[in-house]
Amino acid sequence: MTCKIMGVLNVTPDSFYDGGRYLDHDLAIQRGLEMVAEGADIIDVGGESSRPGAESVPPDEECRRILPVVAALARDVRVSVDTMKPEVARAAVGEGATLLNDVGSSLAALAAELGVGIALMHMLGTPKTMQRSPHYDDVVEEVTSYLADVAGQAKALGVEEVYVDPGIGFGKRLADNVALLQALPSLVDHGVPVMVGTSRKSFLATLSKEKGAPLLGPEDRFEGSLATAVWSMACGAAMVRVHDVAATAMAALLLGASAAPDSDEMQSGSVR
Ligand code: HH2
């Protein structure tokens, strides 16, 4: 199975990793094209941070941040729009976006109306509240059945291209994130293409601290991001959402090479 690479491009002042770097439209477009050169299949443009505690941005401001970037990049590469707002999603599609990265899982009817794809993500509550004591009885069962429901609804509405995403870090404790990553093969088995976003997220720091490492800031989470992207690809994810496109694209290439050969080749050692 091939795995698409979605490059993250946040045109925001406050995203937890790339916030403030690409507020200037020319810099954002340049970074988008750079990620394409590095191997991204799709660029995910966002104008509102969804990090824990983030405040909502007015739709006009979100549009002002992203629309020129969407329009410029859509000439060269597939673009998705990372938003929770229908008016922003509609405007981005008007500028050439063809996938709604619907972190609030509320835009399926709009995707059907506009004839674009959708990625439906699980989130507990809203970004502002989601990390206030999240609790699940059975996180894997609850997230899986939620995603099956929303994917079924989107398909019933006529959306042809649907991804589901367990929403790593969106109202999840460390154990919830780990359980969901461990359960990726069974989520993949449900048959709806799975997308995963672990890139630079704080659970990587919590996890490595638990294993005895110092607490890592977003700048120091490259290894964990790559390791979890590789894990997701190996589990059959159809798309990984990453900041570090070049390394992830190389890993995908290598993983594809090691997954594709038949077992005779593997046993004879012709594949190293
Ligand atoms: N994570 C973030 C944003 N959008 N979309 C999907 N489908 N899956 C994810 O895991 C996901 C997402 C958060 O990361 P980032 O965009 O880097 O940060 P911020 O929300 O602070 O802008």
Structure description:
The chain is of the alpha/beta class and 272 residues long. Helices cover 45% and strands 13% of the residues. It has 11 helices and 8 strands. The protein has helices spanning 25-38, 59-73, 86-94, 108-114, 139-157, 174-182, 184-189, 202-210, 222-234, 245-259, 263-268, and strands at 4-10, 42-46, 78-82, 99-102, 117-121, 162-165, 195-196, 239-242. The chain has an 8-stranded parallel beta sheet with strand order 6-5-4-3-2-1-8-7. Helix 3 (86-94) links the parallel strand 3 and strand 4. Helix 1 (25-38) packs parallel to helix 10. The model is unreliable at 257-272 (pLDDT under 50). The protein binds 6-hydroxymethylpterin-diphosphate.
Provide the descriptors you would attach to this structure in a database record.
45% helix, alpha/beta, 13% strand, 272 residues
